[in-house]
Amino acid sequence: MNATPESSAVNAGPVFVPIESSSTERVTIPRIEEQLQVGKQTLETGRVRLTKTVHETREAVAIPLLREAYTVERLALHEYVDEVPVTRQEGETTIYSVVNEVLVVQKRLLLVKEIRVTKQQIRHEETQTVQLRREEITVERTAAIPTPERPA
């Protein structure tokens, strides 16, 4: 199969070129080579629309609370004592002694009364209305925008 140099770009077969040389020179014959370049491009295949909706509801919430209350109890004793009693603790009750000095033939301490202060923890629930939010997202698919034909 003989071909001319002009048709060798189309013909992928061997190329025969007549050489007019009687010398031993080296002759270089150009050849054609194809190279591949690969690329990529973004192609839109569809669209979506997201819609966010916030729903609000009011709900009653029971909240446990703790408060302290004190009960004061006064006891009249009218007992003579030799020295002032110290403040003491009996469980959750703190006892403070109150004394008077009384003049008698001899001086003695008369325990007049005790004040008892008791600490109590009282639990109760209080209901409050609070605002709660809930979000909802809706996805809506739309058609793709037509694009020109891609080259092959």
From TrEMBL:
<dbReference type="InterPro" id="IPR019060">
    <property type="entry name" value="DUF2382"/>
</dbReference>
<dbReference type="InterPro" id="IPR052967">
    <property type="entry name" value="Stress_Response_Assoc"/>
</dbReference>
<dbReference type="Pfam" id="PF09557">
    <property type="entry name" value="DUF2382"/>
</dbReference>
<feature type="domain" description="DUF2382">
    <location>
        <begin position="29"/>
        <end position="139"/>
    </location>
</feature>
<protein>
    <submittedName>
        <fullName>Conserved domain-containing protein</fullName>
    </submittedName>
</protein>
